Amino acid sequence: MVAIYLPLFALTARAFPLRPWEETNRGISPDSGTDDFIDPESSWDSATGFDDGQWHPSQTWNASADESSTESWSASSSSAVTPATASVTSGYKMYTGDGSTQDGWPSEPDFKSFDELWDANEPVMSTSCALFDQANDSPDEINDLKSAIEHVSQSAHVDPRFAFAIMMQESKGCVRVWSTSHSHTNPGLFQSHKGSGSCNTGSASGVQNPCPASEIRQMVSDGVEGTDSGDGLEQLLEEEGGNFFKAARRYNSGSIDPSGDLSKGVATHCYASDVANRLIGTLTGEASACTLDD
């Protein structure tokens, strides 16, 4: 099973069902899929935190305790996959199925350009840290973030639009985003698997403002190029033959449901669909119209 990372937050708190091993919901964001915010100064004993629905890479689970399993699946199972369906909400299209164009998922020509996506999401990035009671990204930090995504993605041969979409799903681009944790930490802009980059380690003394360009680049590298403990987007794309949506599904949950349907299995069912909508420009900072996790 591949180790995966956890996304972070959304502007609205949509409740997700607890996973078999969770007694309380301590997640940060409905869109990202992470749980258990690390706060050394307080303990969240209530189940009222944001739940991003994310499954932590190092977690193990018993297939008998969940409707999904980590078994590999073959192309012969694709006939059971539900085709993509359109959401009634204006703009957003709710995708289900195996991530292929045959199942209705978008292809690269459908994606907006990197600059178009950046411009559409920049207002979100400039205000996203408020959710964490942290100083919002400064113009310099946002510029450093754009440069880091462009350069690291080029080095890793990863489409920068995909890297950007995953980052927005995980943290909305807040450079001082919290780390999340279960059996290991998931820090930084990409909520990476035990990454070393972070401008908010969970304590007052661990918050960096401004967030140095070197730290921003490390956070991007942790998510795109991977860490010593877990794969990044580069490795997942290679393993999935370049399919963005399968790679996104595994970044969120570690595995793909045996049916091949990216909207099923563990973790955030809306994750791959949300990433697809981010890439085509129909989801920026507003709450996702996806209902797969309802």
UniProtKB/TrEMBL annotation:
Extent of Low complexity compositional bias: 63-79
Residues passing through the membrane, by range: none
InterPro entries linked: Lysozyme-like_dom_sf (IPR023346)
Region of interest (Disordered), ranges: 22-79
UniProt entry keywords in alphabetical sequence: Signal
SUPFAM superfamilies assigned: Lysozyme-like
Signal peptide annotation: 1-15
Protein name per the record: Transglycosylase SLT domain-containing protein
Organism of this sequence: Hortaea werneckii
Lineage, uppermost ranks: Eukaryota, Fungi, Dikarya, Ascomycota, Pezizomycotina
